Amino acid sequence: MGWVKKGLIFKAQGQYPFMQTHTQVPLVEVxxxxxxxxxxxxxxxxxxxxxxxxxxxxxxxxEVLYCHPEPLLELGEIGTxxxxxxxxxxxxxxGSRKLMYYTGWNVRNTxxxxxxxxxxxxxxxxxxxQRFSQGPLLASTYKEPYFVGLATVLKEDKWRMWYSCCTGxxxxxxxxxxxxxxxxxxxxxxxxWHRSGQVALDYFNKEGNGLSVSSVFKEDDLxxxxxxxxxxxxxxxxxxNSYKIGYxxxxxxLRWQRQEDILSLSEQGWDSFMLAYPFMxxxxxxxxxxxxxxxxxxxxxxxxxxxR
Length: 308
Fold this sequence. Notes:
Elements: E1 4-10, E2 21-32, E3 35-43, E4 49-57, E5 60-67, E6 85-94, E7 97-106, E8 114-122, E9 130-131, E10 148-155, E11 159-172, E12 175-187, E13 193-201, E14 210-219, E15 222-230, E16 244-250, E17 257-258, E18 276-282, E19 286-292, H1 294-297, E20 301-307
Antiparallel strand pairs: 1-20, 2-3, 3-4, 4-5, 6-7, 7-8, 8-9, 10-11, 11-12, 12-13, 14-15, 15-16, 16-17, 18-19, 19-20
């Protein structure tokens, strides 16, 4: 049996002042046998992102049980790497603490945005987070000079990170557009990351793509990655060029082989133009795929299921 779309779970539409639009980049955590928590990032009326969460019925994830009324982390101090936006990209449980890796946003004069990767820590079960530092864990370097962004993290005998790395901006119709692929880093403590510019998943064509890793998990001695990708230009206006959900496998987490894509656009509705920022939750009975639809998550987040 293939993937079956179950529908829309939640759409940010002014429930709270900080939650005006976007339900972007879902991250799903099993709270208990009856409840799942879905972290996501939402935007205020100035377009600034902050993370929060909802909780859903584990037996029927379309049923929302709770919507958190506050941001988990506020914007950074003016002049820091995350003063224009905070977007959660990975949650790791470490004893009684939760570590939230996140993308920090800036705006710039020559390009529309600049990203780095930061860390925040929760001591209260994920209800609030405090910054580990005012500076990012991963930022631009001489080997990766443009930006680094969305990341997913696994903790094994060492900490492993797969993250989006921009390799250039190109002007298209007098507008700069970024291309980025997926790179790999390692750490002994989850804080100090060793990165050499190692490519985990490269571009699919000579013009480049936008490749964003969303989740990686290990099962049956294989690593599985779900990601989204777009063409370099016209992805705002042409659904053929916009984000789709890809899938890759690896024996070591370093060298990945792309497989068939997951899902297809609906004929109409919230996911008829774009499929973006997927998160895979493997369970005993099925694989649960949480993802964003049109306009980079402005249309909400939904669910598809594939039974084992």
